[in-house]
Amino acid sequence: MQAGPALPGRRRSEPDGRPAGSPRTACRALREGGLAGAEEAPIIGNVSPLPPQSRSGACARVLATAAVAALSAIPAAVGQARVPDEGRLRGEISFNRQNPVVGANVVGTHEGDPSRLLLGVTDMHGYFRFESIPAGAWTLDVTREGTVPLTKKGILVQPPARCIVDLLMISSGARPDPPKIDLARFETAETEIPADQRMIVEVWDPELRPIIDARVSLRSRGPKVDPIRGAADAEGVARLAAPEPGEYLFKVAVPGYLPATIDRLVLGRKAPRVTVVLTPRPLDYPARPAELLPEERAVPPEGFPGSPENAPAVGLIAPPASPTAPVPAPGTAGSPAPGAAPAPGTPAPAAPPAAGTASPTPPKP
């Protein structure tokens, strides 16, 4: 039985079940058609058979379309690779857009990431900046003595664009509680905790140059553990031991710079990487009373080595012990009987001076 003509809008199928309009079938048909003749070229949809001179060009176009489809999947694979931190976040904090807020602590947390933390201090113009941070949504918490704490959520950092924020603070004579910076709430069951993890603290100046010998301290407010202290090396990096989960007071201080402080930092099992940007202390900036207090040091309990009670007095020498054995008091056990001769080897007591006899006067030097 002879097959009838192809109806418009319908496609013929190959013996293996593939439609005749697929790219692989079309290319094979063009190659076979070039050998058998133009009349054996299949019909692809409503397209008439191609002349011999255009078959190679059509096959090339089909192959080019398949190549474009394959290349379109490359950006998706590249997007899954780790992109370096190139985000930039800058801002200005002021009172009523006129008076800058100097010395405010700016804390940045990356939404859903317990391993990153930003800490900065506003300069004499109320500016702050963070460079080379991950892209995504950030939350800024701003605190300063004499002001109401401020929280700004949903700040999108999308490199290569630079994100700029303008924040306003309100003066207050009260002492409100500082906000709680909770990184433990971002941890999940899938959070990876390295066995040899450490808390990395990077300390920079406003020009992003490392600050050497910056003092970093982490004092516990929850679990009763010893304070963790460290200092930045030549690269401006301090490597601290991983703290126990709990609430801490985090502080970074350098002579000549305004201190950076987080009063309530809640840490989980993941030790974060902290980026600190300090600003030089203005000459007319008044020091807070807490900054004038000396740094607290751990003192061992009484009786332990290193305690003040066990330390020898400086400049004092204890007198040597007398070789003479003490003489018991009369009437006690071991005391000689009245009128008895002293034991051999016991020095006789000195006789009292006679009446009317003047005691010898020691010579003058």
Overview of the structural elements:
The protein has helices at residues 23-36, 52-71, 74-80, 289-292, and strands at 87-95, 99-100, 105-110, 116-121, 127-133, 136-143, 150-157, 162-168, 181-182, 198-204, 215-220, 228-231, 237-241, 246-253, 260-267, 273-277. The chain contains 4 helices and 16 strands. With 365 residues, the protein is α+β, with helices and mostly antiparallel strands. The relative contact order is 0.10. Among the domains are: 23-76, no CATH class; 87-283, Immunoglobulin-like (Sandwich), CATH 2.60.40.1120. 12% of the residues lie in helices and 27% in strands. It has a 7-stranded mixed β-sheet, with no helix packed on it. It has a 5-stranded mixed β-sheet with strand order 9-15-14-11-12, with no helix packed on it. α1 (23-36) runs antiparallel to α2 (52-71).
Characteristics of this structure?
single chain; 365 residues; alpha+beta; Immunoglobulin-like; seven-stranded mixed sheet; five-stranded mixed sheet; 4 helices; elongated
In short:
The protein is α+β, with helices and mostly antiparallel strands. It is 12% helix and 27% strand.
